[in-house]
């Protein structure tokens, strides 16, 4: 097991003393650093955790990220599975090195570049790079010889079991009561989603599962992209990463689902993906039928992604201390799920 070989420090970091606690961690993993010369940059974009970058002013090429796990995040994230995923991705060159864990977080390397936004994600050259990186991730093989099975249903069911029944904040509670169906109805929706996905004959691959724009880092100098944040990585349907990514074209700070890519843009993107996939497999050229099949699978998976993040956000709204309106976000994702469900679920695979 990869996680058993990772250095574990008996340190608990606090947001109130983040820099000082980070120095204690750096003393172990960067013993040659002068503590008085360490600079820090707090990252504020995360929706699950607190993150700080640590570096020396005269060597900004060596940045260590120290992450404090978010309050209540263990309800939605299996930290042992995250470490295993991190190890697989790092060994394949798809994740930075993991230096250590500590009682409530981890420290790891840094991918230079800038996160994508609603404009850059539409640039064809960047779309091609994203497709290439996803193929690389999807080709990762784990140690198990057991036939692969999607963990989508298992993960969402575990979240539904942990779903709050009430929120102390009256505004959250109002949205919850008015806009979120009862748990039994949500479970019925999950069963319908799973039946739909199981009928698509999709490959199951090692998946990132959180391909939102801020998790995709573009390095212009090297002309490549890297995906970051591997907390939700597990074996899943191949098209889930793509459908989830298309849904994230809407952004997150000011969500606009009118930005969901139209059919022509999707087909261009999907052909990029299939070209890299077939090249890796030594398969024949991509056909229009291949792209159409993946198009149908991808859009159905986009609905599955909306539902996935709906349930996640309802739990985060109960326990997270991050300043974000999770319950309203859950309502927004669920509304889009229902809005697109009939259209996308009625799509038929090419014969």
From TrEMBL:
Enzyme category, top tier: transferase
Q: Which Pfam families match?
A: Choline_kinase (PF01633)
Q: Which UniProt keywords apply?
A: Kinase, Lipid biosynthesis, Lipid metabolism, Phospholipid biosynthesis, Phospholipid metabolism, Transferase
Keyword Ribonucleoprotein found: no
Asked whether the keyword Kinase is assigned, the reply is yes
Q: Name one process (GO BP) from the record.
A: phosphatidylethanolamine biosynthetic process
EC number(s) from the headed UniProt entry: 2.7.1.82
Q: What's an example of a GO molecular-function annotation for this chain?
A: ethanolamine kinase activity
The metabolic or biological pathway listed in the UniProt record of this protein is: Phospholipid metabolism; phosphatidylethanolamine biosynthesis; phosphatidylethanolamine from ethanolamine: step 1/3
Q: Name one GO cellular component term.
A: cytoplasm
- What family is reported? Belongs to the choline/ethanolamine kinase family.
**Entry protein name:** ethanolamine kinase
**Species whose genome carries this gene:** Biomphalaria pfeifferi (Bloodfluke planorb)
Organism placement in taxonomy: Eukaryota, Metazoa, Spiralia, Lophotrochozoa, Mollusca
């Amino acid at each position: 097991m990869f996680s058993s070989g990772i250095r574990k420090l008996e340190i608990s970091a606090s947001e109130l003393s983040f820099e000082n606690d980070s120095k204690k961690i750096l003393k172990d993993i960067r013993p040659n650093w002068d503590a008085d010369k360490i600079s820090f940059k707090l990252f504020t974009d995360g929706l699950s955790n607190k993150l700080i970058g640590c570096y020396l002013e005269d060597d900004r090429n060596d940045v260590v990220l120290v992450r404090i796990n978010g309050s209540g995040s263990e309800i939605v994230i299996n930290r042992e599975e995250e470490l295993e995923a991190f190890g697989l991705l790092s060994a394949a060159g798809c994740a930075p090195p993991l230096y250590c864990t500590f009682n409530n977080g981890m420290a790891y390397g840094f991918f230079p570049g800038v996160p994508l936004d609603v404009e850059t994600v539409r640039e064809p050259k960047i779309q091609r790079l994203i497709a290439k990186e996803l193929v690389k991730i999807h080709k990762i093989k784990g140690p198990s010889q057991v036939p692969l099975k999607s963990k989508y249903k298992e993960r969402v069911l575990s979240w539904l079991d942990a779903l709050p029944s009430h929120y102390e904040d009256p505004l959250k509670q109002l949205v919850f009561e008015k806009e979120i169906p009862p748990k039994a109805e949500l479970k019925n929706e999950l069963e319908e989603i799973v039946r739909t996905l199981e009928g698509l004959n999709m490959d199951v691959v090692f998946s990132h599962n959180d391909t939102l724009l801020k998790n995709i880092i573009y390095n212009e100098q090297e002309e490549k992209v890297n995906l970051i944040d591997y907390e939700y990585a597990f074996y899943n349907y191949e098209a889930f990463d793509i459908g989830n990514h298309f849904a994230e074209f809407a952004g997150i700070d000011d969500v606009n689902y009118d930005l969901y890519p139209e059919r022509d843009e999707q087909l261009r993107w999907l052909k990029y993906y299939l070209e890299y996939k077939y090249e890796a497999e030594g398969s024949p050229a991509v056909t229009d039928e291949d792209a159409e099949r993946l198009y149908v699978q991808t859009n159905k998976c986009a609905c599955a992604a909306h539902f996935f993040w709906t349930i996640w956000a309802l739990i985060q709204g109960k326990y997270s201390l991050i300043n974000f309106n999770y319950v309203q976000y859950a309502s927004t994702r669920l509304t889009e799920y229902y809005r697109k469900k009939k259209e996308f679920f009625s799509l038929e695979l090419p014969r």
